[in-house]
Amino acid sequence: MKSLKTILLLLCISSAAAADIFKYVAPDGRVYYTDQPKKGFNYRLIIRTRPKTYARDVKFMAGNRLKYQDLIAKAAAKHQMDPKLLHAVIQAESAYNPHAVSSAGAVGLMQLMPDTAKRYGVTDRHDAEQNVDGGTRYLKDLLAMFNSNLKLAVAGYNAGEGAVMKYNYTVPPYRETQNYVQQVLRLYGKG
């Protein structure tokens, strides 16, 4: 397991080289952080980074954005969400690659984790329609949970709603999450 100094160093590295960060609290109360969780321990993902293919996927983003524009508009209308916000999240999460997979196991356009997909009835995270629908519903629920506070909802989408609550309903002090919130708000035109 990596020390806290190592984790802080990882957080300072550019997003292209960053890793997902997991936290484990041992029975004796000691806290461990790692980018390589061991099986058999109850690690919690606390920072999720982009898929490894993100830099490459940016080259195809314009075409993929056009390809999925109607699907995104349909999900936005169905769940009464702003399609511009969905586009901002998708661009930040996957650069519109429906096959993107993060090292933590987040999948698809909206980078759904297995538990989030299950929570929203997504049976195939690789299916673009199911992925966008589930991600849209999750984002809508986060907005409701955080009283329409866009920054907190976006932070919750990246770091999990528990992290936002843990830090007294503020954007968690994780560099990756703070950068993510700024990026999504800038893409959305609200930053």
Structural features, described:
This protein is mainly α and 191 residues long. It contains 9 helices and 3 strands; from the N terminus they run αβββαααααααα. A 3-stranded antiparallel sheet has the order 2-1-3, with no helix packed on it. It is globular and about 50 Å long. The chain starts with a helix and ends with a helix. Residues 1-18 have low confidence and may be disordered.
Q: Outline of this structure?
A:
InterPro entries: DUF4124, Lysozyme-like_dom_sf, Transglyc_AS, Transglycosylase_SLT_dom_1. It comes from Methylomonas rivi. This protein has 191 residues and is mostly helical.
Which spans have pLDDT < 50 for at least 5 consecutive residues? Answer: 1-18
What is the N-to-C succession of helices and strands? Answer: HEEEHHHHHHHH
Task: Determine the structural class based on helices, strands and strand pairing.
Answer: mainly alpha
**Taking strands numbered 1, 2, ... along the chain, how are they ordered across the largest sheet?**
2-1-3
Q: Report how far apart the termini are.
A: 37 Å
Given the C-alpha coordinates, what overall shape results?
globular
Number of strands: 3
SSE topology:
Layout: H1 4-12, E1 21-25, E2 31-34, E3 44-47, H2 54-57, H3 61-78, H4 83-94, H5 114-119, H6 128-145, H7 150-159, H8 161-166, H9 175-188
List keywords for this structure.
DUF4124, 9 helices, mainly alpha, signal, 7% strand, 191 residues, three-stranded antiparallel sheet, globular
